[in-house]
Every structure is written in structure tokens, then in C-alpha cells.
Amino acid sequence: MIYQGFAGVYDELMTHAPYDEWVQWIQQYMKPNAAIIDVGCGTGEISLRLAEKGHKVTGIDLSEEMLAFAQQKAQAKNQSIQFLHQDMREVTGFEQAFQAAVICCDSLNYLKNENDVKKTFKNMFQLLEAGGVLLFDVHTPYKMEEVFPGSTYADQDEEISYIWQSDKGDDMYSVIHDLSFFVKDGDMYQRYDETHEQRTFPFETYAAFLESAGFEQIEVTADFTNEAPGEFAERYFISAKKPKTIV
């Protein structure tokens, strides 16, 4: 999706996001100096952390505004990261193969139909070298059906305030997030409104899509742990490998 106005305050709203925990999870699968593509990289927080670990990172995102912020951060930290305006469903123009593709912060949940998820998995398979790994996290069906609907989140400080309300979407395991945020501009506040739609699927569905794309060794844990998902798990962490030998 294209963020308009939202990118400018995204980092403030995500101040408490556990980016370091995402990177710690990714690092379990990485060899030193791995070539990684960060898909749906947003403002580059995970890309930067991976680059600081010594990895060779390429970031792609559908939002040019987000990418502009990511590039500014990389330049400020003297990190050589290539940020490209690409749609994960229609990735083109890459000649190199990556050791890993990561899709973090529930970015995959913005794909609202099965075909788009399947296309994305096929694209990731093509981007990876033999033996490469795809890592992504998504909201669980439990979170979409039981936690988000009817929930309201709010925060207020002197510079930025927001109200975030979530309701059920039209499709099974989908939600609609309506956000209003207020940004101080001199003595006034500018209001911005956003609507974000997300959808997820059961793990078994993701596993079937991954297998169809050619992946193997598909594994799932939950909620930044090494434990299998329980009944009330809210986030799947899924890994899948491209075979070392392609038949």
C-alpha cells in the first residue's frame, strides 16, 4: 500500500516495536556477511540493524515515502544499503541471488488474497540461491478474529497523538484498521487519516502455499519464542528453505 503522510510519523508511532527481537530471530538463520533482501522494509529499521551486523542488505517497499526515510537513515549511519521501489508481488530486475529473504512486521498481511501471497512466495523462491531461506511473520487467525476486532488503541504526547480502531473485515481472518493521528505544526495540529486492511491465513495454508512454490523444511514458532504456536498465539514466525538441489 502507499502511505501518504503516515511515513513521516511512522517511526514515532513504532518507538516501542521490538526490532531487535526480529533481528535476533533472523540472525539464527544467517551466516556471516549474508546477502539479504528485506521485503516491505518500511523506513529501514530492520535493514539498518542487519547491515550493522555485517550483512549485505537490499530493501524493497511499495512506499516511495517510506524508502526516502530509510535512505536518509542509511546515509546518516554511513551504511551502504540499496533501497528500491518494488512490489513484493511483482519483483523484477534482480540478477544476484540472496541467501535470505525476510518479510517482517506483518508486512505480508497487507496482501489480501491467496493469489497475491502465492505470487510473493514464488518471487521469493526465485530471488533465493539454492539452500536460501525465507523468513516472515504474520498475525495469527486468533489475533485477527479475537484480539483486533473492536479494539481501540490511543497515545498522546506533545508532538504526536493518535487513535487506532480495529474492526472485522469482509473476509475471514481479516481486519480493517482506521487510524487518525495529529501532528504538531507550530501552534496547530495537522490531522491525517489512514485506513489499513490486513488479512491472514492458518499456518497450514501458508505451508501449502510455500510447498507449492517449491519450499521445504517449513517450520513455525510463535511470539518471539522458539515454541510452537499455542491456542492464544498472536504472531507466527515462519521459516522455509529453498532446496539445495533443484530437481
Automatic annotation (TrEMBL):
Gene3D superfamilies: S-adenosyl-L-methionine-dependent methyltransferases, Vaccinia Virus protein VP39. It comes from Bacillus safensis. Pfam families: Methyltransf_25. Keywords: Methyltransferase, Transferase. GO terms for molecular function: methyltransferase activity. It is an enzyme of class 2 (transferase). This is Glycine/sarcosine N-methyltransferase. The keyword Aminoacyl-tRNA synthetase does not apply. One of its GO terms (biological process) is methylation. Residues 36-132 form the Methyltransferase domain. Its EC number is 2.1.1.156. InterPro entries: Methyltransf_25, SAM-dependent_MTases_sf.
